[in-house]
Specification:
CATH superfamily of the largest domain: P-loop containing nucleotide triphosphate hydrolases
Number of helices: 22
Bound molecules: adenosine-5'-diphosphate, magnesium ion
CATH topology of the largest domain: Rossmann fold
Radius of gyration: 49 Å
Number of strands: 35
Shape: elongated
Low-confidence stretches: none
Strand content: 15-25%
Structural class: alpha/beta
CATH class of the largest domain: Alpha Beta
Strand order of the largest sheet: 6-7-8-3-9-10
Largest sheet: 6 strands, mixed
CATH architecture of the largest domain: 3-Layer(aba) Sandwich
Length: about 800
């Protein structure tokens, strides 16, 4: 059945306290019978038993279990063999105290793939009935006496019908009566199975053993079949055998009999009066000569036999034949796919553990919630660094790219828009627009309204519109919400009662540049989180340069003399100047434009000087080419593509928005070093505290883990069990604290204006926080579990047995 060859095992190998606990052990064990490992304490019995039962590993030697040969200790191979073929009985029972008798046993049946309730009931009932334990099926293991617990442990070992039962001092904690009962059961089992029993009690070995292997200092010193006739002292401490005592008094009358027995000579007489009154016996004892009084009633521990005590001998041994095979209908099925402990069970167990936690444990759970609250705070702070609104840093177009190159030429300037990603060259800066306010005492009738960067209306879509509409004609314009809000907040506007977007629309606006004045209409407010104004391109050029744009009036004029303008040329309104052609040169932004023709018009409001838009842009090129770090600014449809295109063309290109964001973040971060330190400390502290809390909860559960592992529950299953528990605890404590804090922060964020500068809660940050919490808890929770499970079941057991 089991063959051991040349097993060697050391503790503390190559250290001063080295113990050669198994010294060249070779053994062949049969498939039935009771083999006893006998030896003094420390001789290596437990170690040998654990090794042959797959709970521990050796440093050298081979073990053959049935057909399987196990050279190097492999926990998964052993898990399988242990599951099916080995039943364990320990000195301290090792039951799972939070489970009932029935559950303790059915667990091991689940482990070998038996889930059929009828099959489970048949086996459990047969065994429990055999042991007189059938009425305790639903009792929690923790509510049983020692002898009862050991019966349940035996039932657990037997239920799966293993080939081998190993039992390590199973009666070590029991009184003599229970010892005898338990040993009788074990003896009965050994009729059909191999039972390997460890004991240091010679009389038990000799009375029950079929074969006795004596160990000393890790070596087998004798190995013989047991032929001794053997008797067993089964006397109970409290039992009284009258025939072994001296009868000193016997009084008999018609109404009563009185007998006095003693186990020793009485030096002084004892005086007792017995009185019967109202069917009650009063015993009046003169206590000077007795130490203690004890009444023997129906249910007392003390039993009185009217005979001599006799040692039990083998012939009188009452062994009930035990045949589990007769009730087994369903054999072991494929166990690999099954999880012994279902998620539902783990949840139930975890919940009970939480509910029944000690006061300290509950303090920890509250601590989890508080830490999670801090994490929510830290994540909100971190998030405020990352998710910054455009409006907190961007004061110009987000499509703006500053472009620069050595030897930047006019042709380069013109060629810049060649790529699709670049929309247009921005040859216009900010423009001032005045509002015509109602006349109010002491107030000017025009008030400066806007002075902002301009962007083309082409960049807007109707999706951006917050109020009003997009421009439809040349002289209509729209502004960003930020610009409007700023205006509405100013005292002068409030003073005259302009307090809504609608009232802004009702105002008249005008823009003046040099001799040029346009009347403008504000028709809409857009929301692009950038303080820009949006108007027709040509209008913007015209206002910026203070001259008319030829393209705006092309259809409304007639050429009178000279030619149409080309390059650095312009047209002049007929009659506005004397003989302009050839003599008139107008500098626009330091570039000279020469009059080449005159025009007439029937339309009103046509500016006196017209220049082509593109030619004006060139003036901008002149202006900025040398004096600025960037040669020119372009507006891009797609900033990223434009950047890489410009880069490929040898330009140094910087996205204005990216740069502003980086500057702003740097500034925020240098201001927020304290915050960042706080975040780091909270995250590290929470990881560390979870690690220690789970570790200490694990220490408290090493017993349970050791039992699971000893019974053959796979490491994966134990991991899953702890994972479930960690997730449950996290969900009920951390998540609760996190949710509560997040909700509070959210409410504050809604109520307090600039709160998001410090702490910002967004859906994404909330989800990220939840993930971080679970990650921290699960990782720091499972590390100690993983560390523990790397040990052999015996090592885990010895960790528990202090
Ligand atoms: P027995 O069961 O016969 O009392 P054990 O097999 O438990 O003996 O122990 C044999 C020897 O090995 C003892 O001296 C014991 O102190 C030592 N020992 C047992 N387990 C360990 C361990 N995990 N680490 C170090 N020494 C151990
Ligand atoms: Mg031992």
């Amino acid at each position: 059945m089991i063959k051991l060859r040349k097993l060697d095992k050391y503790y503390n190998r190559n250290k001063s306290n080295e113990i050669h606990v198994l010294n060249d052990i070779s053994l062949d064990l049969p498939s039935t019978g009771l083999v006893v490992l006998l030896g003094p304490s420390g001789s290596g019995k437990t170690t040998l038993l654990n090794v042959l039962g797959g709970l521990d590993k050796v440093q050298s030697g081979t073990i053959q279990f049935d057909e399987t040969s196990i050279g190097h200790y492999s926990s998964s191979t052993w898990d399988k063999i242990r599951n099916r073929e080995v039943g364990y009985i320990f000195q301290n029972y090792n039951l799972l105290n939070h489970l009932t008798v029935y559950e303790n046993i059915s667990l091991t049946l689940n482990m070998i793939g038996i889930y059929d309730k009828d099959e489970i009931d048949r086996r459990i009932d047969y065994i429990l009935d055999h042991m007189g334990m059938i009425n305790y099926r639903k009792r929690k293991a923790s509510q049983l006496s020692g002898g009862q617990q050991q019966r349940v442990a035996i039932a657990r070992a037997l239920a799966k019908n293993p080939k081998v039962i190993i039992a390590d001092e199973p009666t070590g904690n029991l009184d003599s009566k229970n010892t005898q009962d338990i040993m009788n059961i074990i003896k009965a089992i050994s009729v059909n199975k191999l039972v390997v029993l460890v004991t240091h009690e010679e009389n038990i070995a000799e009375f029950y053993g079929d074969r006795i292997i004596k160990l000393s200092d890790g070596q087998i010193v004798s190995d013989e079949d047991n032929r001794s006739s053997g008797t067993l002292d089964t006397r109970h401490e409290a039992d009284i055998y009258l025939k072994d005592m001296e009868q000193i008094t016997e009084l008999t009358s018609d109404q009563s009999t009185l007998k006095v027995y003693t186990d020793e000579e009485l030096s002084e007489p004892i005086n007792v009066r017995l009185i019967v009154k109202n069917k009650t016996l009063y015993i009046d004892v003169d206590q000077t000569n007795v130490k203690k009084l004890q009444l023997v009633e129906k249910d007392s521990e003390v039993r009185i036999y009217d005979k001599k005590y006799e040692h039990t001998n083998k012939e009188s041994l009452d062994i009930k034949e035990f045949d589990l095979e007769s009730v087994i209908e369903q054999e072991t099925s494929d166990i690999d796919k099954h999880s012994v402990i279902s998620v539902k069970d783990s949840l139930r167990i975890a919940w009970n553990r939480m509910k029944d936690a000690t006061r300290l444990g509950k303090v920890f759970y509250i601590g989890f919630g508080l830490i999670a609250g801090l994490i929510a705070l830290a994540i909100g702070m971190g998030n405020s660094f990352i998710s910054i609104d455009k409006d907190s840093y961007l004061n110009d177009s987000e499509y703006l790219i500053r472009v620069r190159r050595e030897d930047f030429t006019y042709d380069d300037f013109i060629a810049l828009t060649a790529d699709d990603s670049i929309d247009y060259i921005r040859a216009v800066d900010s423009i001032s627009i005045n509002a015509l306010l109602p006349k109010v005492f002491q107030l000017r009738d025009t008030e400066s309204a806007f002075s902002n960067q301009i962007e083309s209306v082409d960049k807007l879509s109707s999706r951006d519109v917050e109020a009003g509409r997009l421009p439809e004609t040349t002289f209509e314009f729209v502004i960003d919400q930020q610009v409007a809000d700023q205006l509405l907040a100013s005292t002068n506007y409030k003073y005259v009662g302009i307090d809504s977007y609608e009232k802004l629309f009702e105002l008249d606006y005008e823009a003046t540049m040099m001799n040029l004045t346009y009347e403008l209409t504000l028709v809409g407010i857009v929301d692009n989180q950038t303080p820009l104004m949006y108007m027709d391109d040509n209008l913007a050029y015209s206002l910026y340069y203070g001259v008319g744009i030829y393209e705006m009036y092309e259809d409304q004029i007639t050429l009178e003399t000279g030619d149409l303008p080309e390059g650095d040329e312009l047209l002049v309104l007929d009659g506005s100047q004397v003989d302009p052609i050839g003599n008139l040169v107008i500098p626009v932004k330091q570039r000279d434009y020469e009059a080449v023709g005159t025009f007439s018009t029937t339309a009103a409001d046509v500016p006196q000087i017209l220049i082509r838009k593109q030619d004006l842009g060139v003036a901008y090129f002149d202006l900025y080419n040398d004096s600025y770090s960037s040669n020119v600014a372009v507006i891009a449809n797609d900033v990223d593509n434009a950047l890489s295109y410009l880069d490929s063309q040898g330009y140094t290109a910087t996205s204005y928005a990216n740069q502003m964001l980086a500057d702003y973040q740097n500034q925020r971060i240098s201001q927020g070093i304290g915050t960042i330190t706080f975040i780091a400390i909270v995250l590290v502290a929470s990881a560390v505290s979870y690690f220690f809390v789970i570790r200490s909860s694990l220490l408290a559960r090493i017993y349970e883990v050791s039992v699971y592992r000893a019974l053959g529950v796979s490491k994966l299953d134990v991991h899953k069990m702890f994972l479930t528990e960690t997730v449950l605890i996290t969900s009920l404590t951390s998540l609760f604290g996190y949710a509560l804090t997040t909700w509070l922060l959210w409410r504050i964020q809604l109520a307090v204006d600039d709160f998001t500068e410090a702490i910002q809660v967004t859906p994404l940050s909330v989800i990220a926080g939840v993930l971080i919490i679970y990650l921290i808890n699960i990782v720091s929770g499972l590390i100690p579990v993983g560390n523990l499970l790397r040990k052999t079941p015996a090592e885990i057991l010895s960790k528990y047995d202090f």
